[in-house]
Amino acid sequence: MKRNMPKQLSSLFVNKLALVVLLISCGTLSGCSSIKPWVQPYERQNLADPIMSANRHGIAASHAAHVYEARESARGAEGTGGGGCGCN
Amino acid sequence: MVVTKRLLSFIQLLLITLLFSNTVKAAVLEDDKVEVLYHSYEGGGMKIDGPAVLIRKKASESFAVSAFYYADTISSASVDVMSTASPYEEERDELNLGFEYLNNKTQMTLSLRQSEEDDYLAQSVSLNVSHDTFGDLTTVQLGISYGDDEVKRNGDDNFLAQTQHYKVRAGISQILTANLIASFEVEAIANNGFLNNPYRAVRFVDEESESGVGYQPEVYPETRNSLAGKLSLRYFLPWRAAVLLSYRSFKDSWDIQASDYEILYRQPIFTDWEFELKTRQYEQTQAEFYQDLYPYRNAQNYLARDKELSEFTDTTVGASLTYIVPKAYQPFDWPAEMSVQWDRIDFDYHNFRDLQQQAPIGEEPLYQFSADVVRVFASIYF
After folding, report:
1. pTM over cut 0.90
2. Where are the domains of chain B?
3. Which of A73, A78, A80, A85 should we substitute to test contact with B (largest number of B Cβ atoms within 10 Å)?
4. pLDDT in tens, B324-345
5. A1–B300 CB contact, under 8 Å
6. Tens digit of pLDDT for each residue in B162-190?
7. DSSP conformation letters of A44-77
8. How far is CA B112 from CA A76, A87, B34, B37, B124, in A?
9. For residue A84, which of B78, B98, B92, B95 has the smallest C-alpha distance?
């Protein structure tokens, strides 16, 4: 069974991304002006605790993401580089 | 060209967003640091290990540079290598230079990266911008990357192929309560060029062959586009511990859909120690053109028997122990810590068969394996 060439670079993805950027823009522009920050700086000591860090172990965390990227098809939204993974 | 136009539009949008975002007071760059890592992966007939080092130094209050070196020594006798080729050994070296610039609450990071193997050269450039706003309750992040890879085939001096990668990403991190932060990020990736492994072959039923099976090289499409979105939550527990949750969804133009979730629990113990426990579950569907066994030669335009394109699940359990050096023992009063991390990953393939087992063609047992990942990590802030 012959198959057709998969879809060429679709504008779909970039359009979706642009929509997210627009939403973020709205959030950082006038939308927030009527809402006051509800967690004051002096209330953020728990959030500033190192145990709350998403990047607690620096390059060790990057390696963990790299291990998955090399063995799974999913990629992106991980903040890591790609290509030349030495994984085959 | 369509890609370039849309990327330019995206960059315009990015700059407009930052231009109109209000700034109140300045943020600060992260402290100078050195990180050292030994990493090891062993499973499925592969062993990969090596060192990594990161050095980061501020040149001023608004500018910092970093250099990152990473090395892999690879010894491979994996199931797909053993099916159609011989075990091999190789090395990979990666170098990454980073430049950070901070202006009020906007931080820009430019990264230049090169990864080199005998038969693969990957080079990329990334620009990331993050901006704190709304009383520092919100951080907005935007980024783009471009990569250009050169693919060779050992033993074939005439083979040379190119691959280009384009990435655009956006994210937002929001403080929701005094104990809870939520983050959401999306990333679109487009690849063009030679996307398959130049060594791997697919198998097909060949009644003219004595073994009943024949092999031919893989053929992949020359484009692949994907979109991933990830939601993360971080929650501070009343007894000083943290729970981190994340869920990611992925879809691409090869009809692969994937999702993963991770739960991590982090607990300080005694005065200077900290341990983590985590579990992660991943699942994906197969690429539309993937097959473990094709009915005949050239059965489709596109042919793949890469287990990473098959339908499979994997499950990770992991633990880590971190020692935070007490102030009395810190060299030059530089904060330092060391950790040992271990992950066990179990892979279960749903339509990729283990050809190392003796069985009638197409009836071999489904492949599965486990891998152990160990990291020994140290960091010093100065």
Report:
1. no
2. 32-108
3. A73
4. 999 999 888 999 999 999 999 9
5. yes
6. 999 999 999 999 999 999 999 999 999 99
7. -HHHHSGGG-TTTTHHHHHHHHHHHHHHSS--SS
8. 18, 22, 19, 21, 6
9. B92
